[in-house]
Amino acid sequence: MANRYAVILAAGQGTRMKSKLYKVLHPVLGRPMVQHVIEQLKTVKLDKMITIVGHGAEKVSEHIGNDSQMVLQEEQLGTGHAVLQAEDLLKDKDGTTIVVCGDTPLITGETYQALFAHHEQEDAMATVLTAKAPDPSGYGRVIRNDRNEVERIVEHKDAVGSELQVDEINTGTYCFDNKALFEALHHVSNDNVQGEYYLPDVIGILQSRNEKVSAFQTSDFEETLGINDRVALAQAEKTMKKRINEAHMRNGVTLIDPDHTYIGPDVVIEQDVLIHPGSVIKGETTIRTDAEIGPHTEIDNCYIGRASVIKQSVARESHIGNRVQVGPFSHIRPEASIGNEAKIGNFVEVKKSSLGDKSKVPHLSYIGDADVGNNVNIGCGTITVNYDGKNKYLTTIEDDAFIGCNSNLVAPVTVGKGSFVAAGSTITKDVPEDALSIARARQANKEGYASRIKNQKKD
Ligand code: UD1
Ligand code: CA
Questions:
Q1: Does the predicted model carry a pTM greater than 0.90?
Q2: Rounded-to-integer distance, Cα 440 and Cα 312, Å
Q3: SS (H, E, C) 47-113
Q4: Which residue CA neighbors atom 11 of ligand 1 most closely?
Q5: Which ligand 1 atom is nearest residue 11's CA?
Q6: Ligand 1 in contact with 56 (CB < 6 A)?
Q7: Cα(first)–Cα(last) distance of the chain, in Å?
Q8: Cα separation of 412 and 428, whole Å?
Q9: Pairing mode, if any, of strands 254-255 and 141-144?
Q10: What pLDDT, on a 0 to 100 scale, did the predictor assign at position 146?
Q11: Which domains can be identified in the chain, with CATH numbers?
């Protein structure tokens, strides 16, 4: 097998997106589109990957990390000019170079692999990945000669007459003989409607020299969608969602309504998980077997243990054990750790706190910066008072404690093992083990007082 190189074009601003965010960073199911491209390319064996960056180079490079080398295209003079920026790194190499646009995030590793295989089998100088488009407008058209060979590619804006009727489009993905590519790029001019150096002109240049130019047509136009505006972005989101959801369903996950279930590409879900409509599951989330999520639940970067149930709630950057119940209407904020068989009921917020096994916070509570032991019961309306306007303090509640309803635990404070806090208490001092703490005003009943007031004559 010849050496294989990849060049990813990601320097454009993406004017048609009408956005502050650089085009290739717009996410599709939470992952920037250029990262989708890189992840798929990584499944093909490559000797070198180079990404051409320009607009927002710094931001784009943050998302590329160590997966690819980067080269700066200072001025965006067209896709041909973009590829030329990789010349210093590639020009002496023998082998095949695949060029891919950073705005075609749906093309799969299998398609890249098939394109390489076709190109190498045909022993071509260049092979363009094409597709038949139901509506080819906006795309470069593949013009074939009377022997049905690819003659050249004409951009939509430069196309005239019958060229505009051609429905076979250039997907923007090509394999080239590496040395032939860089040699031909020096012959590309910018004499066209957009005044740009077009990469697809290399196809025409090689063909006119009687070099072998081939086309590999995929039957899946949807996969080759180029994202130039937000309408296409929404289409990509839809296609990617369908692809990911179908893979989970084939793995044994039940999605009640896959059209209204949004699962990111890095989420891991075990079999027999049940997901209700309106669930958004993002980041590096893992959901273990028999869990039940939703409806209307957002989970970002969490571990959800076996057979846990999370309803109408939001959970972020947290660890939730096995057989835990959350919701409806709860908010698990970052750095929460919820033990096995614990319960977080309705209207409960938990932040940067750990809750031991079998502990319960059934209703209307705020648990922040707290270390809660096992088998603790926290009554309705309890608040860990963790913030004095400047600093945050820790509340510790030891195993088997019982916190009565509507209590304030003013941190830093510890409630000892097995102790009771009476309802309505404001606890400002540590409660020892096995104690009952009452911290509220004593009740006074004034007999007959109510009717006395009611019967007072008005002046
Ligand atoms: C390009 C192709 C078109 C094809 C379509 C497929 C050209 C001239 N046209 O058109 O034939 O049908 O893709 O989606 O190649 N870029 C740079 N530097 C530049 C210009 C662009 O890095 O100077 C990058 C962009 O960031 C983008 C990619 O190249 O990721 C494609 O550029 P874009 O302007 O979107 O090209 P299209 O008009 O879609
Ligand atoms: Ca494009």
A1: yes
A2: 35
A3: CEEEEEEECEHHHHHHHHCCCCEEEECCCCCCHHHHHHCCHHHHCCCCCEEEEEECCCCCCCHHHHH
A4: 140
A5: 22
A6: no
A7: 106
A8: 8
A9: unpaired
A10: 94
A11: 4-224 (3.90.550.10), 253-437 (2.160.10.10)
Q: Which of 376, 107, 351, 356 is nearest to 216 (CA)?
A: 107
Q: What is the pLDDT of residues 121-143, one digit of tens each?
A: 999 999 999 999 999 999 999 99
Phi, psi of 201 (to 5 degrees): -65, -25
**Cβ distance 127 to 174 under 8 Å?**
yes
Q: Is the pLDDT of residue 368 over 90?
A: yes
Q: Ligand 1 atom closest to Cα of 169?
A: 12
**Whose C-alpha lies nearest to ligand 1, atom 8?**
198
Q: What percent of the chain has pLDDT over 90?
A: 97
User: Helices 178-185 & 201-208, crossing angle to 10 degrees?
Assistant: 100
Residue 351, strand partner residues: 368
pLDDT tens per residue, range 262-303: 999 999 999 999 999 999 999 999 999 999 999 999 999 999
User: What 3-state DSSP class applies to 146?
Assistant: coil
Half-sphere exposure in the Cβ direction for 30 (13 Å, CA): 18
Residue whose entry in the numeric block shows the structure tokens 């997966």: 67
Ligand with smallest separation from the Cα of 139: 1
Six token digits for residue 404: 């009565």
How many residues are there in the chain? 459
Query: Residue 23 region, left (φ>0) first, then alpha (ψ -120 to 50), else beta?
Result: alpha
Q: What percent of the chain has a predicted confidence (pLDDT) above 70?
A: 100
Place of tokens 């790194």: 89
In the prediction, which pLDDT does 321 show?
Answer: 98
Pocket test for ligand 1, best of 79, 84, 85, 221 (most atoms within 8 A of CB): 79
For residue 115, which of 103, 102, 128, 106 has the smallest C-alpha distance?
Answer: 128
Arithmetic mean of pLDDT, 388-402? 97
Degrees, nearest 5: CA angle 303-309-312: 100
Q: Which atom of ligand 1 is nearest to the CA of 104?
A: 14
Average pLDDT for 88-99: 97
